[in-house]
Design brief:
two-stranded antiparallel sheet; 4-stranded parallel β-sheet; 6 helices; elongated
Length: about 220
């Protein structure tokens, strides 16, 4: 830090060294400031700090390094917990799709299937829950998406591209299951792990299901984000 006085107010001011500026009075002509009228201020730039300031900075840096070196980090508290087939705790849950928007519902179901709501979520492991969706025929779409949204399939032959709307898929036998599986499949990994996760979803158009033996618990999907 540099301290200087001006002739106007005789107040002591301070400038940081990083600005590398020293304000000098015109009386300090012999110190390196060239012609200037009496009472004005001249500016002289300095290239480096004094030896005393350098020594102080070096001591502060060494003390900070010693404090950091003395602090020991408990690496065991930062251990990453990864799930595997043996440690993954899979549960059975029931989701009521009545008056649920199709896309919003499927994003939450996909997260449940992947296990993203669990603290030990592991991307390459099937650690998600088994999801039972009831009343799948009562999902809704906003606007005109029942007829305006288009899904494409291809038969494999020339000219074999086919268009489907959500309404046309729902009109088919077991259409609710086909529609929800199509939407959720696009939100899962595109590999064998994603296919296995999709197999953990069970869709029923009514309010009844056949998994009472697994003792599934009903959850409010609206509480999930």
């Amino acid at each position: 830090m540099i301290t200087f006085k001006t002739e106007q107010n005789f107040r002591t001011k301070t400038l940081p060294f990083k600005e590398k500026v020293v304000l000098l009075h015109a009386d300090y002509y012999q110190a390196g400031v060239k012609s200037c009228t009496t009472g004005c201020l001249a500016i002289a730039f300095i290239g480096r700090a004094t030896a005393a300031t350098k020594e102080t900075d070096r001591k502060d840096k060494n003390s900070s390094y010693k404090k950091l070196k003395q602090k020991k980090v408990d690496t065991l508290s930062y251990k990453t917990i990864s799930a595997n087939k043996e440690t993954a705790k899979k549960e059975w849950v029931v989701v009521d799709a009545t008056d649920q928007v199709l896309g919003r519902l499927c994003t939450k179901v996909a997260k449940l299937l992947r296990g993203k709501y669990k603290p030990n979520f592991t991307p390459h492991v099937d650690c998600g829950d088994n999801v039972i969706i009831i009343n799948a025929d009562k999902v809704k779409l906003t606007g005109n998406k029942w007829s305006d949204r288009t899904y494409y399939t291809y038969t494999g032959y020339p000219g074999g591209q086919r268009e489907h709307t959500p309404a046309s898929i729902m009109a088919k036998p077991n259409g609710a299951d086909k529609l929800l599986r199509r939407v959720v499949k696009g939100m899962l990994p595109k590999n064998r792990l994603g296919a296995k996760m999709l197999g953990n979803m069970y869709v029923y158009e009514g309010s009844e299901h056949k998994h009472e033996a697994q003792s599934p618990k009903a959850i409010d999907i609206n509480l999930y984000k």
